[in-house]
Model the fold of this input.
Amino acid sequence: MNGTSHAVIGSATGFIVANSLQTSPTATLLFVGLGGVSGLIPDLDIDGKLRGKITLSHKVIRLSALIIGMMMIFYSFIEKTREDRWLGIGIGILIIVVASFIKQKHMLTITGIAILLGGFSLDELWLILLGIYIVIASFSSHRSYTHSILGIVFFGIIASNLEGSLEIHGVFYSCIGGYISHLIADLKILPFNKRGIKLFLPLSSKEL
Ligand SMILES: [Zn+2]
Done:
């Protein structure tokens, strides 16, 4: 099933939640959006369809890191005292070397780390957890942990923290509903799916 279908099914789930809770038009729109996004999240794993889309271009990040590294060297050279200068230059060189290894396949991990740091600076637990989720997803093989009960539980914790932050009842149901709708749509019993999902990882790797 492609990304658009997952987003549509997830949005429909959000709409059902809004309808059953009789929410305001604004909350309905929010739930439809959250359901749609949550319906895409499981495919953030390796070879998932969403992977290449949400991440920044590695060229932009690499160029920024190169500039920061060079500025660091330059600044250390003119501003710092003797010992600090060599340390600063060393760090600058390290940044440039590390940056030269950045490839597009690392970008999802880097995006996750950025979200994690953003969560810390905004003091939002759901954002910190989402960052951790994305970092883990970036190392998970396709249709594995993000498509399992463990994934549902982890995402559920993110969703309940988001509901706590927004203080809008129904946010949790829209997110978890959208997420679960994705896993149902990926089940092997459906005729258009060649592969199923490993729902009971790590206990069993049987495809359902
Ligand atoms: Zn999927």
Notes: Residues 58-79 form the longest helix (22 residues).
